Amino acid sequence: MRIPHNFDYPYETLMLFSMVFMVIPPFFNEKVKPELNLLRVKKKRNVNLGYLAMMIVLMAFLRIMLGIGLHFIIEINISISPAVS
User: Fold this and answer.
1) Burial of 22 by CB count in 10 Å (0-12 exposed, 13-18 middle, 19+ buried)?
2) DSSP track, 15-77
3) How far apart are CA 14 and CA 10, in angstroms?
4) pLDDT digit string (tens) for 13-66?
5) Cα 65 to Cα 82: distance, rounded to the nearest angstrom
6) CA 67, chain centre distance (Å)
7) Can you tell me whether residue 79 is helix, strand or coil?
8) What is the pLDDT of residues 63-84, one digit of tens each?
9) Nearest to 17 by CA among 27, 35, 30, 3
10) Is residue 15 within 8 Å of 1, Cβ to Cβ?
11) What count of Cα atoms within 13 Å lies in the side-chain half-sphere of residue 2?
């Protein structure tokens, strides 16, 4: 985002003001601001080892395939002959 020089360019000026109108109003909207909650509860996080193993296998497969590369063989046969009925 850049500030238009002397506001000579209407498109850039419109982009600047539209961004300002989208960003500034939420700062003044008191209804959507959440209340400050200083009480923190520690939550235990569980990691499913099956999903972790599957992610590692898929990442290894993706890395191997990107290292090899993808190759496609395209064969085009064009035959010009009179139609046989």
Assistant:
1) exposed
2) HHHHHHHHHSHHHH-STTPPPP------------HHHHHHHHHHHHHHHHHHHH---------
3) 6
4) 787 788 888 888 777 776 666 677 677 777 887 888 998 999 999 999 888 887
5) 45
6) 24
7) coil
8) 888 777 767 788 888 878 776 7
9) 3
10) yes
11) 6
C-alpha 45/C-alpha 85 separation (Å) is 73
Q: How is residue 59 written in tokens?
A: 């990442």
Task: Report residue 38 as tokens.
Answer: 């200083």
The Cβ-side half-sphere exposure at 3, using a 13 Å CA radius, reads 1
State both tokens at 81.
């002959």
